[in-house]
Amino acid sequence: MARIGYARVSTVDQDLNVQLDRLHAEGCEIVRSEKVSGASRSGRAELDTVIQFLRKNDELVVTRLDRLGRDTRDVLNIVHDCQQRGAFVTILDPHVSTRGEMGHIILTVLGMVAQMERRFIRDRQREGIERAKSIGKYKGGMARIDHQLVRSLRNEMTVAAIARRIGCSRMQVYRILKTKSAA
């Protein structure tokens, strides 16, 4: 029986250390992490790796439910996938586990709240952008990664090496390289 931690933040400029420290303090022998949006399960390679690694009676531990996902269906599918492997999921804050039936009900409700919160965030963001556009102050999102640098490094190193050097995911590097070839 292993305790496997999973940590996630949405963007490359966010810090994982608080989650990582908490998971290690909770006794997780293995901790995987990634910097990718929780809006959807797609593109979350580390989460998929953790789920594939789970064995009977293992425990997937996350600090908060929104680290697992912000879509109720995705969260429930993740829990289901863990259960299919004989494992269970534990959320540390608030403490909820799928070991008991009550945990499933609470996780469902918390998943719905996380999804609703995500909708509220999008609505507030959209309202702020519309307001900024109406007064001529909206400039659009800022590029976080130097696309030209990524393209120039491609001749010298692998995608994985570029991602490590820039501090982003391999998927982001592939997207940047794809936009060049599409142009």
Description:
The protein has 183 residues and is of the alpha/beta class. The chain folds into two domains: 111 residues, Resolvase, N-terminal catalytic domain (Rossmann fold, 3-Layer(aba) Sandwich); 36 residues. It is built from eight helices and five strands. Strand 1, helix 1 and strand 2 form a beta-alpha-beta unit. Helix 4 packs antiparallel against helix 5. The longest helix has 34 residues. The radius of gyration is 19 Å and the shape is globular. The termini are far apart.
Shape: globular
| Residue fraction in strands | 5-15%
Strand order of the largest sheet: 2-1-3-4-5
Backbone structural class = alpha/beta
What characterizes the major β-sheet?
Answer: 5 strands, mixed
Order of helices and strands: EHEHEHHEEHHHH
Give the tally of β-strands.
Answer: 5
Annotated CATH topology of the largest domain:
Rossmann fold
Per CATH, the superfamily of the largest domain is Resolvase, N-terminal catalytic domain
Note the total helix count.
8
Radius of gyration: 19 Å
Unreliably modeled segments: none
Terminal-residue CA separation: 50 Å
The CATH architecture assignment of the largest domain turns out to be: 3-Layer(aba) Sandwich
The average pLDDT value, as a whole number, equals 89
Total individual domains: 2
Helical content band:
40-55%
Under the CATH scheme, which class of the largest domain?
Alpha Beta
